[in-house]
Design a protein that fits this description.
The chain is of the alpha+beta class and 150 residues long. The chain has a single domain, classed as Aminopeptidase (3-Layer(aba) Sandwich). It contains four helices and seven strands; from the N terminus they run E-H-H-E-E-E-H-E-H-E-E. The structure holds coenzyme A (COA).
Length: 150
């Protein structure tokens, strides 16, 4: 895989990462919400690959519990290992920040992301009924996944 350059997402450089977020979500956050995830307690990184920002993630820290808030790879760049590299970078950051436990939430239908998380040893903790709005109308369950990290 070509070299990937990770950089912190900031209020100055967030535009392309926000665009990738929009390419990844059926119900994207507003720009204001995305920007609010760059502040205190959050850490967000973007991955530049083949001269473009192709992926990103947002993490959040409360004491020694860290949550993966969002992760995404631009559709044309998927299936090439970038999601895995983003997860590795996220975990490296978690380790540096003294994480004891990692958390995330994922749509029940998102088998690609669930496979990725399982490959990183996340396990299901609970189902949240009707947690997300569904693309075709109605609601969809969330799966809460976690991993001890010490
Ligand atoms: C989830 C996502 C980040 C994965 O990124 P990616 O660059 O395609 O992932 P990788 O190529 O690194 O693959 C990593 C693992 O994901 C899983 N995976 C990737 N593509 C898959 C597919 N088409 N079908 C099933 N599993 C798949 C596999 O477990 C894979 O590991 P493997 O290659 O050892 O089998 C990407 O699909 C994405 O941006 N999806 C939309 C946003 C999203 O759903 N984010 C998660 C919100 S909770």
């Amino acid at each position: 895989m070509a070299e990937i350059v990770f950089s912190r997402i900031t209020p100055q450089n967030y535009h392309r990462a926000f665009q990738v977020h929009g390419e990844c979500q059926a119900f994207p956050s507003s720009e204001q919400t995305f920007l609010s995830c760059l502040g205190n307690k959050y850490f967000a990184y973007q991955a530049e690959w083949e001269q473009q920002i192709a992926g990103f993630y947002v993490g959040h820290q409360v004491l020694d519990e860290l949550t993966l808030i969002d992760i995404g790879v631009s559709p044309l760049m998927r299936g090439k290992g970038l999601g895995r590299r983003l997860m590795e970078h996220f975990e490296q950051q978690c380790r540096q920040r003294g994480a004891q436990q990692l958390w995330l939430e994922v749509r029940e239908s998102n088998s690609v992301a669930i496979n990725l998380y399982q490959a990183f040893d996340f396990a299901e903790i609970e189902h949240r009924k009707n947690y997300y709005p569904a693309a075709g109308g109605g609601w969809e369950d969330a799966i809460v996944m976690s991993k001890m990290f010490f």
